[in-house]
UniProtKB/TrEMBL annotation:
Pfam hit, one: MoaE
Transmembrane segments: none
Protein name (record): Molybdopterin converting factor
Record's keyword terms, sorted: Coiled coil
CDD domains (alphabetical): MoaE (cd00756)
């Protein structure tokens, strides 16, 4: 079995694809020393700063963003001796409770995959040219990185 590294930007549901990804990644355990598979799934919060979130809107230059995501996946797989890293990230409108990003990592044990998954999500938020507009009851905000919000200027 070869190393699985995949990254995709997806319009529409990504949570429904998780079972198939887990089945594919779990097969790496058959002939490799894989003892841990971890999933991180980010979802849209219902409230931020006490205000109701209506939706997030993700946009990106797809080809460039997918290359960056794949580079992150490959680098972290190599650095952490992982057998698989899959990153799926939503594009378009995403409502509270819906999945925005899924990261699946498989490796020798829980420490390696847990550490790698945390680093991967941090890198995705900081490095990938994916733009997130948070639409709340008190206005619209561009979200930079993980927490910085800049009120959207209206012309």
């Amino acid at each position: 079995m070869t190393l699985i590294v995949r990254a995709e930007l997806v319009e529409g549901d990504i949570a429904g694809r998780l079972k198939g990804i887990l089945e594919e990644v779990s097969k790496t355990a058959v002939d490799k020393e894989v003892g841990g598979v971890e999933v991180f799934m980010g979802v849209v919060k219902g409230r931020v700063g006490g205000f109701k979130v209506e939706k997030l809107v993700y946009t990106a230059y797809k080809e460039v963003a997918e290359r960056v995501l794949e580079r992150i996946a490959r680098e972290e797989a190599e650095k952490n001796s992982l057998e698989a890293v899959v990153i799926l990230h939503r594009l378009g409108e995403v409502r509270p409770g819906e999945a925005t990003v899924i990261i699946v990592a498989a490796g020798r044990g829980r420490d390696e995959v847990n550490r790698a998954t945390r680093v991967i999500i941090d890198r995705v938020k900081k490095e990938a040219p994916i733009f997130k507009l948070e639409v709340r009851e008190d206005g619209e905000y561009w979200v930079i990185g993980d927490e910085t919000r800049v009120k959207r200027a209206r012309s």
